[in-house]
Amino acid sequence: MISQKKIDLTVLSRDDAEQELCARMLCHLARQEPLVRVSPKLTAKLNAWRDVTIANAEFPGFREGTWHKIFRGIKSGETDADAPCVFGLDFLRFMGLVGEHVEATGQIFIPRQIALVVMMEVQGKYAALQYVRVQETWWIEPTELGRETLRVRGRIAITAILNFGDYPEVGLPRY
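Given the sequence above, the corresponding structure tokens read:
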């Protein structure tokens, strides 16, 4: 759940800012419609994968069949917002793409900034984050919706990950 406390990313350390933004963005994606009802077993895996993303740790359980696990865990394609095990479709897409990358490359560590970029690619029409370029530096900052729903202000530089060669499914914004 997103903290009710508003935060300013510029007063946090880089690591704390990335961690806070990642946690809030994952929660945002998980709550966005359309919502998909999933099995309790998949819910446990998704929660564990979410926690690993936030912690900037190695991903367990992505050896093979991530999309298969996700599709198998969807319950009848129902979109019951009152069901205890529901996730936003964009959240499922994010987890599937991360798993696909791990399966294809064998890398079990996804830097938190890469995870944020992938989240931005799947965030759909309720975009909470956007790219901003100031001179030669790329930044991630909240949109107006993001400032309200994520309860953050400020921005974080993404210059440390401008070499996307190791992550072909992720690209810089097309401006």
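The mean pLDDT is 80. Try to locate this feature in the token string yourself.
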